[in-house]
Amino acid sequence: MSSLSASRRPHPALRWVHKQLFPNLLQSILTLATLGLLLWSVPKVLDWLIFSATFVGSSKADCVGGGACWLPVVNRIDLFVYGFYPDTETWRVNLAFVLAGAIIPLLYFKRIDRRWVLGYMMLLPFVMWWLLKGGLGLSSVSSTQFAGILVTVFLGVIGMLFALPMGILLALGRRSKKPAIKLLCVLYIELVRSVPVITLLFMASLMVQLFLPEGVTIDILARVLIVLVMFTAAYMAETIRGGLQGMAKGQYEAAKALGFSYWKTMSVIILPQVLRNTIPPLLTQFIGLFKETTLVVVVGVLDVVGIAMSTTSAPEWIGLEHEVYLFLAMFFFVICFALSRYARHLEKQLEKSR
């Protein structure tokens, strides 16, 4: 009898469909309407994007078929990716991309010692700077030749890796018992958070040079990077400070009873727990930083958005703005979606550990 009743039970997949998609009449209507909209729109979108699109040609006149014309992107893909980087040295850019992209899979592998991963992330900004700028055996490349996706990835990755430790120090400083340190951190955080990032970029681009001695200059890319790091670190500091305030008082008392110093207490007991609990909002801020790199175009740094604007304004590609900006949207979606999925993965791991 039990085997008969078990055989009549619906398959787990059918139970999931019933529970998630058709639990009641209203939900069933919404599900069917959504499925109908997808069945009507997806074939049309795919036909425009891929099947009737034009990928081969050298001018706008070669765009036939009624679909998207990807020729502006296809013909200028090297400019989109490498900017004005020397053609013979693009292997350095490719290697920098590989090293930056390796962060996510390294974070997924649990068998790798976290200390090795942390060391890799600490060295990565300096290795990327050496690869892209040159020196120590590599030919020097001016930052004025940096453009396109190269600039976006460079600013995003290095900005992320420098903003987190700075945000931790600011959060600790704001909770410090020393009035001078606390006041400085509070003033810094509140001042930076009260000013739009685009204002800070203009100040770094136009005003900083006025206060430097004659003949002394700071690379515009370095100035932009410093602004993005400072801006993101101020917001991260508040997120981490919230995590510190949420820690049980007994954690501090236990560390004090064991004779731990302040820095040992923070590094061994407090911060590992705080960072684990604040990882989702911190990754959200990383995603925001990656998208905010597009603002550097207003101070003359040609990131991928700057290249797209120059492409759409070229006489031979006028009228194909939709395809160019759709390419940009897909590029940012892939990067930000990967980061958001990793944030979700960490949330699940945190729920299991709890």
From TrEMBL:
* Membrane topology of the entry: Multi-pass membrane protein
Record's keyword annotation contains Membrane: yes
Which locations, inside or outside the cell, does it occupy? Cell inner membrane; Cell membrane
GO cellular component term of the entry, any: ATP-binding cassette (ABC) transporter complex
Q: Which InterPro entries match?
A: AA_ABC_transptr_permease_3TM (IPR010065), ArtM/GltK/GlnP/TcyL/YhdX-like (IPR043429), MetI-like (IPR000515), MetI-like_sf (IPR035906)
What's the chief localization of this chain?
membrane
The record, for SUPFAM superfamilies, names: MetI-like (SSF161098)
Parts of the chain that traverse the membrane: 21-42, 91-109, 116-132, 144-172, 184-208, 220-237, 293-312, 324-343
Q: Which GO terms describe its biological process?
A: amino acid transport
- Tell me what this protein is called: Amino acid ABC transporter permease
Organism, as annotated: Terasakiispira papahanaumokuakeensis
Q: What is the lineage of its organism?
A: Bacteria, Pseudomonadati, Pseudomonadota, Gammaproteobacteria, Oceanospirillales
